Amino acid sequence: MTQEKIIIDVGDGAAIPSKKDMGLFSAWRISFCGAIVLLIYLVISRPDPYLKIVKFLPDGIIVTFQVTFFSIGLALIIGLITGLGRISRNRIANAIASTYIEVIRGIPLLVQLFYIYYALGRFVRVPDMVAAVIAMSVCYGAYMGEVFRAGIESIDKGQTEAARSLGFNRTQTMFYVILPQAWRTILPPVGNEFIALLKDTSLVSILAVADLLRRGREFAAESFAYFETYTIIALIYLLITLLLSKLVSIMEDRLNYYGKF
Amino acid sequence: MTQEKIIIDVGDGAAIPSKKDMGLFSAWRISFCGAIVLLIYLVISRPDPYLKIVKFLPDGIIVTFQVTFFSIGLALIIGLITGLGRISRNRIANAIASTYIEVIRGIPLLVQLFYIYYALGRFVRVPDMVAAVIAMSVCYGAYMGEVFRAGIESIDKGQTEAARSLGFNRTQTMFYVILPQAWRTILPPVGNEFIALLKDTSLVSILAVADLLRRGREFAAESFAYFETYTIIALIYLLITLLLSKLVSIMEDRLNYYGKF
Amino acid sequence: TDATWPPMEFVNADKEIVGFDIDYMKAAAKEGGYQVEFKSVAWDGIFGGLEAGKYDAVCSSVTITEERKKTMDFSMPYFKVRQALVVPKESNATTLEEMTGKTVGAQIGTTGYFAIKEMEGIVAKSYDEIGLAMEDLFNGRIDGVVCDDPVAAQYALQREDYKAKLKIAAVLDTGDEYYGVAVKKGNTEVLDLINKGIQAVEEKGLANEFRAKWIGQ
Amino acid sequence: MENSEPIIRIENVTKRFGHLKAVDNVSLTIKTGEKVVIIGPSGSGKSTLLRTINRLEEITSGRILVDGMDIMDRATDINRVRMEVGMVFQNFNLFPHKTALQNLTMAPVKLKKIPRQEAEKNALRLLKKVNIAEKADVYPTQLSGGQQQRVAIARALAMNPKIMLFDEPTSALDPEMIGEVLDVMKTLALEGMTMIVVTHEMGFAREVADRVIFMDHGAVVEEGTPEHFFKNPTHDRTKLFLSQIL
Amino acid sequence: MENSEPIIRIENVTKRFGHLKAVDNVSLTIKTGEKVVIIGPSGSGKSTLLRTINRLEEITSGRILVDGMDIMDRATDINRVRMEVGMVFQNFNLFPHKTALQNLTMAPVKLKKIPRQEAEKNALRLLKKVNIAEKADVYPTQLSGGQQQRVAIARALAMNPKIMLFDEPTSALDPEMIGEVLDVMKTLALEGMTMIVVTHEMGFAREVADRVIFMDHGAVVEEGTPEHFFKNPTHDRTKLFLSQIL
Ligand SMILES: Nc1ncnc2c1ncn2[C@@H]1O[C@H](COP(=O)(O)OP(=O)(O)OP(=O)(O)O)[C@@H](O)[C@H]1O
Ligand SMILES: Nc1ncnc2c1ncn2[C@@H]1O[C@H](COP(=O)(O)OP(=O)(O)OP(=O)(O)O)[C@@H](O)[C@H]1O
Ligand SMILES: [Mg+2]
Ligand SMILES: [Mg+2]
Predict the structure, then answer these.
(1) B7 in a domain, yes or no?
(2) D46 C-beta closer than 6 A to ligand 1
(3) What range defines the domain where residue B87 resides?
């Protein structure tokens, strides 16, 4: 009857449909099919405004993906460095990495975006997209840092000992032995963060980066079809994240069944 | 050498400083003291604009807290219902709860805010604060639903069997036996979601709700003191979330040491 | 420019930034012999971006005010507006004073917002975009919106669905305002070019042509 | 102890888990006041059979009558049946957020609407009976396994059941605690309670049981008095099992 | 086998974990080619002592010389020392993301810059030596424990070490696999490798060891030849331990 501590994990990405969770598994289908059917129905039944809206948005989707990809790439690099800092025995590196995580996670992303975009704009001159990507990746780097740290710490200590006793130094051990194993643990949460990041790129619309949401707002501002526009935008985001979450779920299955190691 | 599956959990709230994680523990101190010292230094050394900014913001902070409290309250109720739906053997209730979670988590909060605020504004007329609270709690209710589900599922099946064999029906078992035990598991993630929600209330500033961020933006737009204003805003959010994360951490410790059951 | 301010500047169905200001600046550029490129930027950071050098000039229905002159330089005025109050059809308010106790919206950081904020007894609400304020007015969340009169006219008189419900109650006695193009303080190089262009456009009387095209009367 | 009305009637009961027949066409009749001990190897379906009696497991086919009520009948309020059938689990399953006393009073107060004071008086009486009155205000985690199991027995008794089911009540206990739980069960038996006990404690079976039932692969292989069982069992499987366990 | 130059010198070495002295003022000299078996009860500091030799544990005080190099000296490149000291762990610790062959070639290729082809040739030779050449392209998870441990030994040998340390190499193995690992170790011993082996396999100790060391509470209690040890040990603690283990 000793209750062990149970940690509840609700990621900020999408709900990943897994075969273990039949509820979500079938909910994924309902949502996905529902969204597609609704989208097609709207476009066909009322081309004005729905078809117009759909035609207006594609370059916004591209921008959304661009921001997402560049940000996740940069965030992975920042995350790796931060994660290594967090497990470092060097007190200063450790303190810097930990404080970075603590501070970034303590400030709303939107405030960070404003800050990096406008306030720091005083000192460095960068294009909008770059500023947006920097802001997103600085923020997500902190989360990725924790993902990397946990991933690295999940590898058995014996691996490090074996590598060190063969003569590998710390860095070599990390890159030849630990990280190549850690990616399996890291990949699913990275997939999840990817989806969360994609959703959060909607915030860059505030910065006049012409992403999906911004495009929609522009259309709505001109046509006053708020309801219709936001319906389409919500459907598009939903379809994208549902597809991505399916991908993550397939990836997780692969990792679990893939017997290679 | 069989690797068990390790799940990495990086919540979307603040980084909770725990005594087990010395890095974050001391980072919390560095961040907190640093933020306070910086805030005081700025206000004293350059009252114009910093003191002005600080004086301008208090009612914004109050609005931020109001939105947060009402939203978390409502989200808890929605979450409980959703969580119960998710574990329900009634297929329809289960499908509705799962689909709600899947859909809500698939759409960016900002888009949901716009949608609920403007698009649905055509059909129902509600004050902006109410609309903001509804939007926030509809979104967070989905996350809370997963927290409740996990919390309920963490309780040993034997508890249900014991209660049922005494003659309690399903509902009685849930409310007299399961939930009173589940809150211990649920409380820490709820604390975490609370912080995440507080940060996300910054998004309601987009809806012209006069929260902390909106107040700051108004000040900045008029005074052009962007850098200074966003610095103060970031510091205030940081201080609030750091304080709250400390609270959550203290609460977790209490729950762990508190031997009552 | 903040392209959410029809008819002065906005994005049309072909995703082009168009409007009075745009045509005006294009003409001025032609006259002044320089190239312009328009960039859509959110209003409440538009001057921050200017200062940060993300662009050289702001041509976005910027009213020349003393306050603003402290932080940036303005071109010669090129357009005159007044602030207008838009209210629902059934309202009988005709001045801003009569809106006491009511909630009035305006775009963040505009002269319209400054006007309502200074008014005792009015609950001022700031929006990111004027269209969002109009939508809230349309949906009954607020009781009035203050903005530049051409914009007010665009919303209250042009749009089918709005026309049925909204009207311009009054042009406010906050005095005439003049639009100018803002540049970073001390950036005389750009300022001179712009002034030269505006001068030429005014001399040719092109402004009236644009007015007719975008604003009507 | 040989009253003749049967209080439990199990008729051709089968319980499947997927392809597995955990209980395979079992028929049994248990009379009021009878003490039945079920033995058998692990996985033979003892727990499953026991749990079908208060419908913790729903049967796949067959019929079960408890005190005249068909428990699979839709018209039967299963919660009323369960109030008449007390159950004691291997893992005690006390409510950890309630004190020992509260564990006992909860069901009577909430379900039978007995006034709290009266329920507490009765609870204290039962705790005395299981020799643990001094721990009334203690939470389960502060009790030893044997103490917890005794509280669990008292909790079941607090509902004043006509039948008590025990599923290996001592097998999660350290050896030194088994005795104190068996003593409580023996007292209960002497008082005439109808009891069905799944256990590996052969001493208890010999001393208390009116009838011993041996199960294997979901079926009842052999039944009889303890004397019959421990002196000359008929079936080879029973012999094998007894030789391993004794 | 009695060459006289000492290849390892352990001088007054103490290792503390907080208040606990895991190794308590131990001095030892090990000659080239010597085979030393360390025995002792659990927690006596055997593993810790072994691990100080290649600085997997940093010593608190004392001095350790390996092949003339002071391993705690800042001027010493500890990774050079480690290349000369092979280590085999209880849990094998093979790299699961590499095949058996790659496990062997990785260190020589990356650290000694040996051409891949040459390294692979050498690796295959070693896999043959440990009787597992046919599993060269298999990943560790598909190997049995005994096979994994043999690959682990070959991996250590691939760096061409002068000394081999074994920390209970057979105690995570099922009994039927212990022999195949011990055989490999015996072969290695016959070839003249300097070996320090922590093990509970007394047969191996008797057959292979030049010297047996008994540790308790972090200290060396007794040392001597296997004959001395198993026939007439001096200390009571040694006797007690041997009586339990044999
Ligand atoms: N909920 C369930 N789902 C699937 N199979 C089950 C379930 N419960 C029991 N079984 C299976 O039914 C069979 C009978 O199980 P049961 O627990 O009744 O055996 P038992 O005789 O009580 O064994 P033990 O002495 O180990 O408690 C076993 O094969 C078991 O694996
Ligand atoms: N990293 C560590 N931190 C703290 N204490 C440790 C650590 N490693 C070992 N110890 C302690 O040091 C003592 C010696 O441990 P060691 O592993 O060397 O014993 P051993 O003789 O190898 O035992 P075994 O036969 O169980 O492997 C033990 O009390 C152990 O708990
Ligand atoms: Mg059982
Ligand atoms: Mg050891």
Answers:
(1) no
(2) yes
(3) 22-258
User: Is residue B259 classed exposed, middle or buried when 0-12, 13-18 and 19+ CB atoms within 10 A define those classes?
Assistant: exposed
- For residues B199 and D101, give the distance between their C-alpha atoms in angstroms, rounded to a whole number: 45
Atom of ligand 2 nearest to the CA of E215: 21
Ligand minimally distant from the alpha carbon of residue D24: 1
Structure tokens belonging to residue D192: 């005439």
Are D202 and D229 in contact, with CB atoms under 8 Å apart?
no
**Where residue A103 sits, what CATH number does that domain have?**
1.10.3720.10
Residue A150 lies in a domain: yes
Share of chain D above pLDDT 70, in %: 98
**Exposed (0-12), middle (13-18) or buried (19+): which is D117, by Cβ within 10 Å?**
exposed
Q: What is the largest CA-CA distance in chain C?
A: 51
D96/chain A closest Cα distance in angstroms: 8
Mutate to test the pocket of ligand 2, among E14, E20, E60 (most ligand atoms within 8 A of CB): E20
Q: Chain E: which residues have CB within 8 Å of chain B?
A: 91-92, 94, 96, 140-141, 148
The reported pLDDT for the residue numbered B159 is: 95
- Does this model's pTM top 0.90? My answer is no
Q: Which ligand is nearest to the CA of E200?
A: 2
Closest CB to D110: pick one of B176, B180, B261: B176
Distance from the alpha carbon of residue D43 to the mean position of ligand 1, in angstroms: 5
Tell if the CB–CB gap between C45 and B226 is shorter than 8 Å: yes
Which residue is listed with tokens 């912080």? B195
pLDDT digits (tens, 9 = 90+) for E13-57: 999 999 999 999 999 999 999 999 999 999 999 999 999 999 999
Residue D153, both tokens? 């027995």
Q: Which residue of A has its CA nearest to C17?
A: A218
**Residues sharing a CB contact under 8 Å with residue D184, sequence separation 6 or more, in sequence order:** D129, D130, D131, D150, D153
| Sheet strands side by side (includes C72-74) | C57-58, C182-184, C72-74
List the single residue in C51, C127, C139 with the smallest CB-CB distance to B208. Answer: C127
CB D139 within 8 A of CB B260: yes
Q: Would you say residue A1 lies in a domain?
A: no
Alpha carbon distance E129, C85 (integer Å): 94
In total, how many domains does chain B have? 1
**Percent above pLDDT 70 for chain C:** 97
Q: Which ligand is nearest to the CA of E214?
A: 2
Write the pLDDT tens digit of every residue in D78-106: 999 999 999 999 999 999 999 999 999 99
Q: DSSP code of C203?
A: H
Query: Does the structure show a pLDDT above 90 at D208?
Result: yes
Q: What is the pLDDT of residue B8?
A: 59
| Distance in Å, CA E15 to ligand 4 centroid | 14
- What is the spatial distance between Cα D182 and Cα D205, in angstroms, rounded to a whole number? 10
> Is the CB of B186 less than 8 angstroms away from the CB of A8?
yes
CA E58 to ligand 2 center in whole angstroms: 14
What are E113-124's pLDDT values in tens digits?
999 999 999 999
d(CA B34, CA B28): 10
A77 is a domain residue: yes
Q: Which residue from D230, D172, D200, D193 is spatially nearest to D7, judged by alpha carbons?
A: D193
Residue E8 phi, psi (nearest 5): -130, 130
ipTM of the complex model: 0.81
Residue B224 to residue B246: CA distance in whole angstroms: 35
pLDDT band (50, 70, 90) for residue C157: confident
Token pair for residue B215?
A: 């107040």
**Do A226 and C135 count as a contact with CB atoms less than 8 A apart?**
yes
Please indicate if any CB of chain D lies within 8 Å of the CB of A6: no
Distance of alpha carbon B158 from alpha carbon D51, whole angstroms: 13
Interface contact B154, partner D, CB < 8 A = no
Q: How far is the CA of D4 from the centre of ligand 3 (A)?
A: 29
Contact A103 B31 (CB under 8 A): yes
